[in-house]
Prior knowledge:
The protein is an alpha+beta fold. The chain contains two helices and six strands; from the N terminus they run ββββαββα.
Amino acid sequence: MASYTTVADWRDVEAGYVVAITIRRTEAESYPSGWDYSLHLGEVGGDTVLRYDNAHERTKGHERHVGDDVESIDFPGMLSLYDRFTREATELCPVSWNWPE
Length: 101
């Protein structure tokens, strides 16, 4: 079984929105990028506003979800993707999140 090193794992809820961040470094074969991640912004109750993930990286690659729409994306590296997520989430949501760096 491949090991994971958790880099970030936190959740915050504010004004009807939830941010849930999970970032893990891994050597698992199912994650060729070396990362297992989910960067999620949603409404409390379940609707996705924005999410980046690689839950099925080996078969589907890296994905960007906006509402019900899903698109494949190139993976620019974990730090660049996290920065992209925080910029887009800030534009899409009226909450001022305190983003850990």
